[in-house]
Amino acid sequence: MLFILIFLICFGLVMLYSSSSYVAANEFGDSAHYLKLQIRNLLVGLVAMIILTLIDYRRWKNLGGFIYLVSFLLCIAVYIPGLGRSSHGSSRWLSLGPISFQPSEVAKVAAIFFMAMMIEKAPKAMFTVKNIVKELIIMVPLVGVVAYMNLSTAIIIFGIVACIIFVASPKYKPFAAVIGAAGAVGGIFIALAGYRMQRIHTWLHPEDASSDEVYQTLQGLYAIGSGGLFGKGLGQSMQKLGNVPESQNDFIFTIICEELGLFGAICTILLYVLLLWRMMIIANNAADLYGSLLVVGIMAHLALQVILNIAVVTNSIPNTGVTLPFISYGGTSVSILMAEMGVVLGVSRQIKLDEIR
After folding, report:
1. Which of 64, 245, 332, 338 could disulfide-link to 114, CB 3.0 to 4.6 Å?
2. Would you say 280 and 16 are in contact if contact means Cβ atoms under 8 Å apart?
3. Is 88 exposed, middle or buried (0-12, 13-18, 19+ CB in 10 A)?
4. What is the b/e burial string over 173-210, where b = at least 16 CB atoms within 10 angstroms of the residue's CB?
5. Phi/psi of residue 87, each to 5°?
6. What share of the chain is helix, strand, coil (3-state, %, to 5)?
7. Tens digit of pLDDT for each residue in 210-257?
């Protein structure tokens, strides 16, 4: 798993430099500006990953409630004037002195640790629909405060929680009702924000939208289509020359498709599949239920972000801001993901080789 992770990170750095060099040179006078920042973010995440790998993950078992409370307060603090910072019209960043980060990313980790703790304390409670609903209701405050300004992250958090409960519970039928209820709540949040309804309308009827509203999506699709089977070659993208906004962030997959083609896109997806497969083996062989659920939650986080990002850039779902793990430029996101990999490696360290299934 560590080898696959290192390979994915190195590939991400290459593609990040390729996709951001032109914009960085124009805006900052340094073609490696985003690359340097990403290396810094990865180093922060690497330190966290090493620490969490060496620490016995069972020490976090009784801190799930505390982590949940802290993340909830941090998410509320985003809306406090002077602390919260807006980006692209949404208040998603929290500034504490020289440090600036996204509390919603911390909320994903909180959901994983909290749910693993709750289920591990009473695993048989997941045998009844009533208790499953209770577990979901407990997460409503955190999901709700995140969803107010960042619905895509709230969907990921809910997906993480649902995956953990799904794995821990033998009851499958109630999840249809849960998904329906979640869809209804999501519809309410979409209706409350006009720009979300506009995004859906633009997605369904691009011919009725103004050029600015569909520009990023269309330019991304042009990049994907022009790549062909094997792409134009590394560094040869034309769409990254100011045509695809945020080409180093959410839409970096389009540049991968343009430069490396369908072959490169499939290889990238296979890297994620291999990483998730190794994580599944670790979850199956974890020393206890708590460790297994932690890995399941992290698997769900990684898988959901990959699926949503690729779905957005291929216009399969309405446009929303979701980064591609370990490849897209991002501070809080990549550091948190690296830390989560440390938790997975910490769980794997407790597995006895003669007991691997």
Report:
1. 64
2. no
3. exposed
4. ebbeebeeebeebbeebbeeeeebeebeebbeeeeebe
5. -145, 125
6. 75, 5, 25
7. 655 578 888 888 999 999 999 999 989 999 988 888 888 889 999 999
Provide the b/e sequence for 330-350 (b: ≥16 CB within 10 Å): bbbbbbbbbbbbbbbbbbbee
C-alpha 196/C-alpha 190 separation (Å) is: 5
Residue indicated by tokens 């699926």? 307
The DSSP string of 224-259 is HHHHTTT-S-TT--STTTTTSTTTTTTTHHHHHHHH
C-alpha triplet 112, 99, 244: angle, nearest 5°: 80
- The separation between CA 343 and the C-alpha centre of its own chain, rounded to angstroms, equals 16
**Which token pair is 272?**
């994620």
Model pLDDT for residues 251-268, shown as the tens digit of each residue = 999 999 999 999 999 999
d(C-alpha 123, C-alpha 206), whole Å: 48
Residue 41 one-letter amino acid? N
Q: Which residue has the tokens 């929680």?
A: 161
pTM score: 0.90
Letter for the amino acid at 185?
A: V
Q: How many other C-beta atoms are found inside a 10 Å radius of the C-beta of residue 310?
A: 20
